[in-house]
Structures are given as C-alpha cells and as structure tokens.
C-alpha cells in the first residue's frame, strides 16, 4: 500500500473490498507521518492510540458485514481550532495550551458518524489570524514543496500535511482566505463553502459572520465527498442554514463546463500579480474555453476596498469573541496576581501573541463610541456594496475565475515585519467571505522554480456542486493530482 498517494475514495473502497484493513491504513499513515513530519512540522497533536482504536472498530464493522460510512477508515487531520472531545485543542495559542474540550464540534461528530479516523490536530496561525502559520505560538510549518517557504495560513498545517501526503484529507477554517490561500501555496484543493452550509458549532470563533469550516484534499472528488458528510443544518448553530438544493456533490461531477459562463475581472490582473501566476491563469482560461465554457471580461472595481472592510469587521468581531479569554473560566492563568484587573491584564498580555493583540486593539478601537460610525459602520456599508456587486455579476455569470493569491509562497520570515504587506496577500479571497459566497482553490500550474500556483473559482450562494464540476473538468485536463511526489522524485 502506497499510503501517501492514496485518495479518500481509494482508501474507503480498499477497506470495503478487504484489500487492506483500517488498522493497516492507520499504521501506514502514522509511519509516513513520522518520516515526513520532521521536515514539515504540520501537526500540533497526533492521536495515535485513539486512531488505532477507531480503526479497530471499523474493522469489526467490516467483519460483521455492517454498512460503512462515506469516509470509512479515512485518516483525517483537523485544524487545531476545531473542538475535539478529549483531544487537546489549542488554536495555536498559549492561551489554550492545555485546553481539552469536553465535546466534539458538529463537524467532528459528523466525521465520526461517517467512520473517518481523526489522526491529529494541525498547526495554524494563532486564533486563525495570519497568512503564513508564523503566528503560531508553537511551531513554524514548512511548505512541502520548498521547506524554506511558508505553507500559507491560517490553515497552513492542514494544507501542508495534505500536500506532503501525510493524510488524504484535512479540515481548515476560512475567515478571509485561510483554506484557499494555503491550498494554493501547498498545491492542493481547498473549498470554502457558502456561509452557513457547514455548522460552526465547536469552531473556536475568530470573526463569526465570516468564519466557515471546509475541506482540503488532494483532488476535487475527495473534496466533494467530504462536503456530503460535513454539510447540513445544525440546531446547535443558529447561522447554519437548511441546505436548499444539493446533498450529492459527487453525483454528476463529470458533467463538464459546456455552456458555463465564466467572468474574469480585469482588476484581477493589475499590478501586484506575479507574472507567472498571470500566465498560468491565462492558460487555464484557454482550457476552459476549449472545454466549451464562455469566458468574458468584466469589471469588479470594489475589489481593493474589500481589504479595509474585512480588516475592520473581522477585527471588531474578534475583539468581542476573544473577550472571553480573561483568565477566569478556562485557559491560561498567570501564577501571581493580586486583583481581578491584574489577573485579566496579565492573562491577556502574557498569553496572546502580537498579531492577536494587534487585531483586538484595532477591533476595540473601531467599535469604540467615538469611532464606531467612522470605521465599523462604514465597513458594514461597504460590505453591503460588495454583496450587491457580486449579486449583479451572478445574475449574468455562473462563475468568477480569479487568482487565489497575488504571489507565490513567501520565504519563511519574509513578511513578518510588515503586517500590512501580509494583509495585501488576501486581496483575492477576502471579498468572498464578506459576501458569504462559496469558492475553491485548485492547483493550475507551477512556477519555473517548481512552486504550485492556485486558481480560484467563485460561485453564487449554494453553487458548490457547479464549482466542483468546473474544478473537476479542469483537474482532468491538467492532471496535476499527486504531482508533488513525482516532482520530488525528479528533483
Ligand atoms: N489572512 C487573513 C487574516 O489574517 C485570513 C485569515 C483566515 O481566513 N482565518 O485575517
């Protein structure tokens, strides 16, 4: 069994057909993780024993001839901001260094019901704030294609462990691009679903009106399959929606793109976009045309302003969400303090990292009575405009095609001293969250230096099925799946 190249589908069918057992899958996976992890540093926690116990239960089910779930025996890694019953969940923060949740997030419950096996929890930027994983309090994850570069963020650990072949599937969370950007940097597929499609119950909140959980996989079909398991209304999350149209994302995935109307905004190709990414995208556009899609140029002028609206709104929400970390209820508590104020102050200054503090201050400022109208309200008005603009585009088009990132993966440390420059890297992903839309990033080529390039497909609300069909058509043409291992062998 060559576990590092196996897809979700292959693992599941191998177990059902008794070609191998779930226990063998887990043992091979752990072996591969141990060999690869020292170069990547993608995991905060490995759940070896629990994974083996879960695998044995699945093997018992197979022996008894019981029906198996959609993800039977599939090892999955979870971003460390997703609560797991009895398993450390740190948010990559000193604040939650020893927090063991007493419950599972809804997505975890659904994964377990589908017989998936949780193999570990992945590194991330602290409280999901960042674009490189360098804001983690614990470690710096490396890009599987070039270990001197970042894997992206904030779900960089999840993207890196999938990109390095350690697991076929991982979950991330995306508030402003945190699934799509690391997926692009690590050469894997990442999907940010429509807001409300997947329950956020048990996801430690960053910015509640923007956060969404989504899958990261090596290929489009595996993303589609996991979405079938993850999606659906949840009474524990008041913002989860009754899914209106689709539950079978794999069905008709090979429908193709004939007649699909694709919009490309001319603003996407302006200054700041790496020429190699631009070139790769042009080639992809031609492929879509050859496959029968209609591609037209449009204008989406507000694209730039989305960044300011995002950083005001997300920081405002974060300042409120993170107020609960005060040293009283759970998490970090300083050893010495005299008064309550001192306890709170020490907790927050000692246990939050710089970026988290920066966002809390920015958010508190934007919400303060003197500045509320000038910042928060203006950002909300801008958000409305962005929503309207996307609605207008989707009246005439099915999909918007854009780069996922303006640049190739950064070198470790390259952007650390300049947060504003780092924020600019979110230019193509941010508006999707503001408008609550679904979007995915799929590998579309490589730079001359062998670094992956990601393409983003954005759709109207609840059009995940169509996005997956379009991505699948492209994937079939490009055949980039499993490329990293091949590239590694050649170099
Ligand atoms: N890079 C963005 C930020 O730092 C996005 C983060 C995210 O999606 N969680 O806020």
Radius of gyration: 21 Å
The count of β-strands is 11
**Number of separate helices:** 16
Order of helices and strands: HHEHEHEHEHEEHEHEHHHHEHHEEHH
Q: Structural class, judged by helices and strands?
A: alpha/beta
Largest sheet: 11 strands, mixed
Q: Give a list of the ligands.
A: glutamine
Helix content: 25-40%
Task: Outline the structure in words.
Helices cover 40% and strands 13% of the residues. The chain has helices spanning 8-16, 22-40, 48-64, 106-113, 156-163, 180-186, 220-230, 275-290, 306-321, 340-351, 354-367, 373-396, 419-424, 430-434, 464-478, 483-490; strands at residues 43-46, 75-79, 117-122, 169-174, 189-192, 212-217, 261-265, 294-298, 399-403, 439-446, 452-459. α2 runs antiparallel to α3. The model has no long low-confidence stretch (mean pLDDT 95). Bound molecules: glutamine. Glutamine (GLN) binds next to loops.
Describe this structure in a few short sentences.
This protein is α/β, with parallel strands linked by helices and 491 residues long.
Write the layout of secondary structure elements.
Layout: H1 8-16, H2 22-40, E1 43-46, H3 48-64, E2 75-79, H4 106-113, E3 117-122, H5 156-163, E4 169-174, H6 180-186, E5 189-192, E6 212-217, H7 220-230, E7 261-265, H8 275-290, E8 294-298, H9 306-321, H10 340-351, H11 354-367, H12 373-396, E9 399-403, H13 419-424, H14 430-434, E10 439-446, E11 452-459, H15 464-478, H16 483-490
Parallel strand pairs: 2-3, 2-4, 7-8, 7-9
Antiparallel strand pairs: 1-3, 4-6, 5-6, 5-10, 9-11, 10-11
This protein binds glutamine.
């Amino acid at each position: 069994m060559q576990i590092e190249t196996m897809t979700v589908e292959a693992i599941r069918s191998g177990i059902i057909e008794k070609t191998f057992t779930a226990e063998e899958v887990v043992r091979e996976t752990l072996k591969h993780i141990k060999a690869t992890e020292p170069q990547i540093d993608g995991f905060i926690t490995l759940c070896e024993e629990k994974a083996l116990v879960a695998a044995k239960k699945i093997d018992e089910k197979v022996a008894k001839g019981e029906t198996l779930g959609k993800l039977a025996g599939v090892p999955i890694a979870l971003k460390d901001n997703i609560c797991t019953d009895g398993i450390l969940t740190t948010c990559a923060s000193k604040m939650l260094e020893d927090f063991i949740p007493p419950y599972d997030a809804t997505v975890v419950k659904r994964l377990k019901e589908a017989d998936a096996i949780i193999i570990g929890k992945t590194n991330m930027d602290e409280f999901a704030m960042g674009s490189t994983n360098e804001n983690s309090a614990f470690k710096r994850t490396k890009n599987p294609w070039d270990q001197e570069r970042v894997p992206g963020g904030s779900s960089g650990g999840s993207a890196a462990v999938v990109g390095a072949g350690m697991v076929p599937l991982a979950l991330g969370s995306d508030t402003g691009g945190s699934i799509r950007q690391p997926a692009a940097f690590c050469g894997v597929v990442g999907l940010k679903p429509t807001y409300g499609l997947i329950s956020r119950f048990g996801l430690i909140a960053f910015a509640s009106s923007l956060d969404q959980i989504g899958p990261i996989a090596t290929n489009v079909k595996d993303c589609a399959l996991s979405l079938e398991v993850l999606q659906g209304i949840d009474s524990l999350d008041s913002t989860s929606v009754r899914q209106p149209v689709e539950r079978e994302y794999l069905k008709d995935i090979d429908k193709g793109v004939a007649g699909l109307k694709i919009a490309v905004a001319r603003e996407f190709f302006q200054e700041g976009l790496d020429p190699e990414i631009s070139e790769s995208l042009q080639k992809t556009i031609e492929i879509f045309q050859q496959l029968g899609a209609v591609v037209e140029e449009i204008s989406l002028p507000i694209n730039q302003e989305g960044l300011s609206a995002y950083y005001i709104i997300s920081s405002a929400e974060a300042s409120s969400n993170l107020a609960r970390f005060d040293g009283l209820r759970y998490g970090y508590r300083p050893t010495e303090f005299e008064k309550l104020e001192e306890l709170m102050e020490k907790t927050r200054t000692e246990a939050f990292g710089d970026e988290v503090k920066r966002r809390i201050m920015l958010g508190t400022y934007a919400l303060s009575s003197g500045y509320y109208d000038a910042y928060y309200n203006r950002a909300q008005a801008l958000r409305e405009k962005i929503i309207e603009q996307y609605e207008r585009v989707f009246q005439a088009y099915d999909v918007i095609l854009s780069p996922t990132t303006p640049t190739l993966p950064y070198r470790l440390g390259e952007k650390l001293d300049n947060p504003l420059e780092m924020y600019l890297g979110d230019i193509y992903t941010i508006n999707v969250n503001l408008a609550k839309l679904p979007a995915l990033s799929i590998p579309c080529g490589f730079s001359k230096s062998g670094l992956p390039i990601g393409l983003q497909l954005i759709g109207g609300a609840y059009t995940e099925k169509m996005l997956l069909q379009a991505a699948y058509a492209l994937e079939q043409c490009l055949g980039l799946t499993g490329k990293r291992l091949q590239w590694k062998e050649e170099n």
